[in-house]
Each structure stands twice: as structure tokens, then as C-alpha cells.
Write a structure and sequence with these properties.
469 residues; alpha+beta; nicotinate phosphoribosyltransferase; TIM Barrel; 2 domains; seven-stranded antiparallel sheet; five-stranded parallel sheet; 36% helix
Length: 469
């Protein structure tokens, strides 16, 4: 008996950047006015949760994707798929990219330096074409370039959280500058939608902090931002490594952690709520193992992981103070001896503010507590968190400049800008300037040309980016 095999369609390339767009973009080359030779589009945050954004992540997108060369094979593959999908395809245009430009994309991208803090409603990035026969390419790559919203939003949220923590440390700690980089630790890798999200989202956080358990962020940092080691971590227990000893041997699990990881100058974390947090602190850590913890010389970081976060941290800090003692710093705040607390469950802006407020009321320095943030750091954001938009704002049609914008009467907040846009400093404020011509050299611009005709023109290191915030 012969079994007939149904022919399978050929697999599609994972590296065909032509396909990284929205389907309807393929019909747009037929929709612009005849005589269109130039288009200009821009990216902005139209508002949202925070009044200032921290720009980051464009270098990764350009380096990872837009430095690839388009090949004839990519064009043929894209044509077959898109036409079968029901859309027209600009075949001659894409073959022009291959044959005239050697596969390099004839686009120019300008942007503010990564790490720059920019008030909302200002241009962050602009894109225009360098080949007058291919103006539609500016819109084709909106889909890909718009994804910069994600690292920008993560970096923005992380920066605002850093400022909250910074204020608390400067009020209550003698070691604010030393403590701040490690006060908000990234626990988000398992909570994101993809490895790439973990990498670029995790690195976005690391332009503000230096603590992370997202290894993928270190890979992206080294490969695309010249960072040898973008972040640091410490040995830490999880529930399985504690509960595998059995409830009756919980103290042995803790004793093993001290024996394995504690030495002068070391820091290690132990989740301590597998059974009873109060008992773990007051009896196991605070009595049975107290002297061993002190004698080993390292810093034990106790991690509550259940219950109401502000309440559990308050309980842990006060109980540890009673068992291990405190010193009083020059600002009059208590600092735990030998131990610290990290809260990694239920952390967001609201709980961070509550926990820091409780510490202040109880007279404890903010340096006693660190935060671990997972889904709320890397996943609980979207394009509308900062209301990102990528819009065309100017064109050259039959040799004449034309402003392009939308102005819906049903939502004035969606009115887009028109003009060839630039960001400048006026009277100490960043403002967007609109030119009514393409013939400008952008005097006094805060933006830079970072990409042209398939080549990266600027490559910032992570350290340079960190220094801008």
C-alpha cells in the first residue's frame, strides 16, 4: 500500500526583512500622488503615563535588521507570498534596491542620542528616503521601526522608578550613589513574550540600573552596545531549592545557603516564606542560624514572596532589626546589620512608594530594601503607555514641498505634526522645530543622522547611554 504525501509549501526565511511589515503596506506604492519623490516620517510620544521619555533601542533595531542587504531571493520570496496573500507587490521597486543599491536600503534615519530624556510631544526619530524613486520605503518600515516603543517605554518606566528610589536614598542613606544602581533588579525574563523582548527590554532597564537576572540582556548589550558585562547578579534560592529539603529540614536548607555562599563581602538571597515567614525570621534565621550568619561575614538578603508586599516587607525589616540589630547613620535612619530584604513579588510603582514610605515612617533607611520586578517591568507596558505614533509629516511632490498631517475632529489629541521636523533647545527647553523645506542642515539640532543607505553611522556604548540620564 502506497501512502500519498501532500506536497508542503516551501518554508519562509526568518531573515527576509521585506516581510517584516503590515500586509497593507504592500499596496501603498500605488496610493501616493503621482510625482511623489520624497517622504518624511517621524516618531513621537503623544502623551501617556509619564511626562518625559528616555529614548533607547533604535540602535539595536538598525543593527539587528536594517543593516542586512536585500537579495533577489528575498524579493522573489516576498512577491510570491504577498501576491498569494491578496496584495499587490512593488516588485520593480524592490529589485531596484537590489540592482541599483546593492541590497542596501536607501533610507536616512535621524534620532536623538540614546539615553536622552525628552519631554512628550516631541520628535524622537525621523525617516526619509534617499532614492527619489522609492519614497514608499519610508512607510514600509514603520512596522519594524515603531517597535522601538517597547525599549523606550521600559527605559522610561525604569528611569521614573529610579528617581523615586533615588529620592528615598538621598533622604535616608549615606550611600545613595553606591546603593542606587542595584535597587531595582530585573526578574522579568520568564514573563515576556519572546527571547528578543527579554533581551532588548532587559537592556532598556539596564541603562538605569545594573542588577538583573535576565541573561539575554547581557547578550544584547555585548553584541549591539559594546558592553562587556551589562549587569550583575547574586546567588539566590528559589522555592524548589528550599522545599526539596522538606519542611522538617527547612533550617538545613538555610544553613546550606550560608555555608555555600556567605563569606566576607558576599551577598546572597534566600526566599524565606515557603512555610512561615515569621518563624523563618524569628526562629530559624534570628535564633538558630543567627551566629552562623554573623560569623560567615556575608550579607543575607531575606526574600518574602507572598502576602501583601508593603506589609510583608515591613514585618521582615522590623523582625530582622530585632534579631540582628541596627546602626544609625548620619541622617538619623536605622541600617540593618548583616542582613537586608528584597521584595520581588507584586512590585510596581505603587508598592515601591508604599514600601519606601513605610521604611521612612519606621525610621529605616531605604538602603535596607531592594526590589525585584518582573512582569510589571518588562511586560505590563504597551504602545499606548506612552501613546507612540509614527506619522508622515512632509513630502516632495512634483518638486514642491507639501506638509502632510491628520487632524481628526473626533480626537484632537491625534492631530499629527507637519513639516520636516527637528529637535532643538530653546530657552533651556527641548522643542520640535518644523521646516517647510527638505533643504536644511538642521542648525542647532539635538538629533543625529544614525543610519544612511544601509550603514550605521553612529554606535553608542551602553556606558555612553547611561551617562545621558
Amino acid at each position: 500500500m502506497t501512502t500519498l504525501q501532500t506536497p508542503q509549501p516551501p518554508l519562509l526565511s526568518d531573515d527576509n526583512l521585506i516581510l517584516d511589515t503590515d500586509s497593507y503596506k504592500s499596496s501603498h506604492f500605488l496610493q501616493y500622488p503621482a510625482g511623489t519623490t520624497r517622504l518624511f516620517s517621524y516618531l513621537e510620544s503623544r502623551g501617556g503615563r509619564y511626562p518625559v521619555t528616555r529614548f533607547f533601542g533604535l540602535q539595536y533595531l538598525l543593527d539587528r535588521y536594517l543593516t542586512r542587504r536585500v537579495t533577489a531571493a528575498m524579493v522573489e520570496e516576498a512577491r510570491a507570498l504577498i501576491e498569494a496573500h491578496g496584495e499587490p507587490f512593488p516588485y520593480e521597486g524592490w529589485m531596484r534596491v537590489v540592482n541599483v543599491h546593492g541590497g542596501r536600503l536607501p533610507l536616512e534615519v535621524r534620532a536623538v542620542p540614546e539615553g536622552t530624556l525628552v519631554p512628550i510631544h516631541n520628535v524622537l526619530m525621523s525617516v526619509t528616503n534617499t532614492d527619489p524613486e522609492l519614497p514608499w520605503l519610508v512607510g514600509w518600515f514603520e512596522t519594524m521601526l515603531m517597535r522601538v516603543w517597547y525599549p523606550v517605554t521600559v527605559a522610561t518606566q525604569s528611569w521614573h522608578l529610579r528617581e523615586i528610589i533615588r529620592a528615598a536614598l538621598e533622604k535616608s542613606s549615606d550611600r545613595a550613589a553606591e546603593e542606587l544602581p542595584f535597587k531595582l533588579h530585573d526578574f522579568g525574563s520568564r514573563g515576556v513574550s519572546s527571547r528578543e523582548s527579554a533581551g532588548i527590554g532587559g537592556l532598556a532597564h539596564l541603562i538605569n540600573f545594573q542588577g538583573s537576572d535576565t541573561l539575554e540582556a547581557l547578550r544584547v548589550g555585548r553584541n549591539h552596545y559594546g558592553s562587556d558585562i551589562a549587569a550583575f547578579s547574586i546567588p539566590a534560592a528559589e522555592h524548589s531549592t528550599i522545599t526539596s529539603w522538606g519542611k522538617e529540614h527547612e533550617v538545613d536548607a538555610y544553613r546550606n545557603m550560608v555555608a555555600r555562599f556567605s563569606k566576607p563581602g558576599s551577598v546572597f538571597a534566600v526566599v524565606s516564606d515557603s512555610y512561615d515567614l515569621k518563624n523563618a525570621i524569628n526562629v530559624l534565621w534570628g535564633d538558630t542560624l543567627r551566629q552562623q550568619v554573623i560569623d560567615a561575614g556575608g550579607t543575607l538578603v531575606v526574600r518574602p514572596d507572598s502576602g501583601d508586599p508593603p506589609a510583608m516587607v515591613r514585618l521582615a525589616v522590623n523582625a530582622l532589626a530585632a534579631k540582628f540589630g541596627t546602626t544609625t547613620n548620619s541622617r538619623g535612619y536605622k541600617v540593618l546589620q548583616h542582613v537586608r530584604v528584597i521584595q520581588g513579588d507584586g512590585i510596581d510603582e505603587a508598592t515601591i512608594r508604599q514600601i519606601l514610605g513605610n521604611l521612612d515612617v519606621d525610621g529605616f533607611s531605604a538602603e535596607n530594601v531592594s526590589f525585584g520586578m518582573g512582569g510589571a517591568l518588562l511586560q505590563k507596558v504597551d504602545r499606548d503607555t506612552q501613546r507612540f505614533a509614527y506619522k508622515a509629516s512632509a513630502g516632495l511632490i512634483d518638486g514642491e514641498y507639501r506638509g502632510i498631517y491628520k487632524d481628526p475632529v473626533t480626537d484632537p489629541g491625534k492631530r499629527s505634526k507637519d513639516g520636516v521636523l527637528d529637535l532643538v533647545l530653546e530657552n533651556g527647553r527641548m522643542v520640535t522645530k518644523a521646516y517647510k523645506t527638505f533643504d536644511t542642515d538642521f542648525p542647532g539640532s539635538l538629533m543625529r543622522t544614525v543610519y544612511r543607505d544601509g550603514e550605521m553611522l553612529v554606535r553608542d556604548t551602553l556606558e555612553e547611554i547611561r551617562g545621558r540620564g
